[in-house]
Amino acid sequence: MTPLARDGWQVFPAEPAVANWVARAAPAARRAVADPANAGWLRCGGTWFAGVDVLPNDAAGAVDGSGPLAGRAVAAALAAAGLRRTEWHRGQVSVVHPGYPRPMPGEGEAAFRYRRDRDAAHLDGLLPVGEARRRMLKEPHAFILGLPLTQADAGAAPLAVYEGSHRLLRAALGAVLKGRAPGDWADTDLTGAYHAVRREVFATCRRVTLQPAPGQALLIHRLALHGIAPWEEGARADAEGRMIAYFRPVFPPERTADWLWRD
After folding, report:
1. Which phi and psi angles does 252 have, rounded to 5°?
2. Which domain holds residue 173?
3. What is the number of structural domains in the chain?
C-alpha cells in the first residue's frame, strides 16, 4: 500500500524535473496574482488569494517553456488514479499572507470560526448547490497535486490534512451512493452524510500540517479532508507569501465510480 492510499497524503523529495518547472511557473504565477483581472480572487481581508484556474499552463502542464509537468509525484498520481495520462487544467495559484484568516464580508461568525479553528477543512469537488447550499459531487477529482512556488516557514499557513479521513469519507458517502448509478451522483444530496462524517474525522483523525519547499511535491487523496491552517505569529515566507500551484484533474464520466471506490 502506498503512503497516499494509507495516510491520504504523501510528500515527494525535491527533484530537478519539479524544480525546473517551478523556475518557470513561479514568475508566471506572480504575474497572474498581480493581474487586475484576477483581483476578485483576493479574499479573507486580503490574506488569501484563491486563484482558481489563473496559472497559464497548457494541457501538458507546461508554463512559459517549462516543459510538461513531470516527476515522481505526477507519475504516482496518475498510477494511483489508473490514468496513463491526463490533460492538465489551468492550475490554481493559492497564495496566503500573514494574518490569515480574517473575516470576509458576509461571512457569518460560525463560518469564520470553522475557517479559523478547523482550517476550513473540506472535500474538494463536493460543491454547495443552490440557495440551501446542498453538497453534491460536481467535480469527481482523480487526485490533488500541489507544487510549492515559494519558501515558507512551517507555521506560514501550511496545508492541513486529516490523516486517514479518506477512508471515513469513502464509507460515509458510499453508504449514500451505493446502489445509485454513477451518472446520478452529481445530483445526489450528500449534505447530511458529509457533515456527520466531518465531525467523526475531527474526533478521530490526526491533523497533519504540510509545508513542502519548492522542488518538492505533495499529493492529497481525492477523498481526504483538508484545508489551510492559520498563519502563526512570527512565521515568515517569501515576499509573495506562501504560494502553491494546485492541480485537480477530474475523472472522465465513464470513470466516475472510481472517485469513490478506487484506492
Report:
1. -65, 155
2. 3-251
3. 1
**Tens digits of residue pLDDT in 202-251:** 999 999 999 999 999 999 999 999 999 999 999 999 999 999 999 999 99
Identify whether the C-beta of residue 134 lies closer than 8 Å to the C-beta of residue 128.
yes
CATH of the domain at 210: 2.60.120
Q: Supply the pLDDT for residue 112.
A: 97
pLDDT tens digits for 146-196? 999 999 999 999 999 999 999 999 999 999 999 999 999 999 999 999 999
Report the mean per-residue pLDDT for the chain: 97
Flag whether 157 is in a domain: yes
* Closest residue by Cα to residue 211 from 252, 263, 143, 159: 159
DSSP E strands, the chain = 9-12, 42-43, 48-49, 92-96, 126-129, 134-137, 144-148, 159-162, 207-210, 217-220, 226-228, 242-247
Q: Does 144 fall in a domain?
A: yes
- Of 257, 244, 253, nearest to 73 (Cα)? 244
Q: Quick one: CA dihedral 92, 138, 250, 143, positive or negative?
A: positive
Residues 189-201 have pLDDT tens digits of 999 999 999 999 9
Return the pLDDT at 232.
98
Is 258 within a domain?
A: no
- Does residue 263 sit within a domain? no
Integer Cα distance of 31 and 54 in angstroms: 10
**pTM score, whole prediction:** 0.97
d(CA 224, CA 64): 32
Give how far Cα 52 sits from Cα of 49, 55, 226, Å.
9, 8, 17
Cα–Cα nearest to 121, from 15, 29, 41, 194? 194
The number of C-alpha atoms within 13 Å of 106 and in the hemisphere containing its C-beta is: 1
